[in-house]
Amino acid sequence: MLCYICDSTADDCRELARLYKKYAGDPIWNVKAFMNPEKLMNLVAGDKPEILIVDISLKPLGECGGVDLARKVLEVSPTTQIIFVGDNPLHCTAAYGVKHVFFLPRALCAKAFPLALGKAIEASQVQNRAAVVVKTRDILIRVFYDEIYYIENHGRQVLFHIAKEPPLCSYASIEILSKTLDDRFLRCSKSYIVNMDKVKSLSLRDLTMRNGDQVHISQSHFTSAKEKLSAYLEAKALVVGMGRLESRHRETLKELEENQESTGDSNPHKTQSP
Asked: On the CB side of 226, how many CA atoms lie within 13 Å of its CA?
């Protein structure tokens, strides 16, 4: 996650960057600080920052000039979440002129910063959640990737198995889906695609999902599925950071290692691929 900070002085930029790093947590504290709005605008189109923390009264732009800067940023990067900082609480009314998540009075900055940042991160995550549009019999439903446990080929239809809901049935191609979904999804047979974030354990024949369902792995897909799952979970561990490995990934990696030690890799299947 990238955060832009634009303030009138170097000291103010440093303080806001310090607070961001303190409360955002590693490794999402990538920050770029600016005192020159023009330099910021030269980079924003390429960077598309998730968050902009901006002084509402930027010296180069005059009183409430930070609102104009935020408006220009949103024209180029509409998903950027805006947090305004201001010395004068009365300037909060000017902030209504542009979409923002929080106005942060400078005097209360240290105390209120976690709340402001939390709102910005939450709004960014909701806005940027990847999703697929599922066409059922009579409606279109937007299904977020992180809600999908697995996708099942069912004749000429596809079933989307999601959390705490009956499967969504849609006329779709599992072949096309396997090419369009992102790298968290694993094709483990001709009939199944699984969300690796939802996998609990791997056995010789099946993946056990975190909702208790078991998904068959074909013989032809077993070796590559095991390698991709292990690599994906290791990569997730690195993203989370040293000492902050999410418990669900740590548990899954441990189960994978135990299964590999007990079963080995040689000829794990005797059944034919579905």
From this structure: 21
| Gap between the Cα atoms of 240 and 156, Å rounded | 39
**73 lies in a domain?**
yes
Residue 35 dihedral angles phi and psi, to the nearest 5°: -110, -10
DSSP 8-class letter at 103: E
Strands 192-195 and 140-144: unpaired
**Partners of residue 150 on adjacent β-strands:** 161, 194
Structure tokens, 87: 């010395």
Q: For residue 60, what are its two tokens? A: 């180069």
What burial letters (b/e) apply to 50-85, b meaning 16+ CB within 10 Å? bbbbbbbbbeebeebbbbbbbeebbeebeebbbbbb
Chain centre distance of CA 270: 39
Strands, E, within the chain: which ranges?
2-6, 30-34, 51-55, 81-86, 102-105, 131-135, 140-144, 148-154, 157-162, 168-170, 185-187, 192-195, 199-202, 206-209, 214-216
Full residue range of the structural domain in which residue 82 is found: 2-128
Instruction: Tell me which of 75, 107, 128 is where a domain ends.
Output: 128
Query: Mean pLDDT of residues grouped by 10 in the chain (274 residues)?
Result: 91 94 70 93 91 88 80 91 87 78 91 91 78 81 89 92 87 89 91 93 90 92 90 67 46 62 48 40
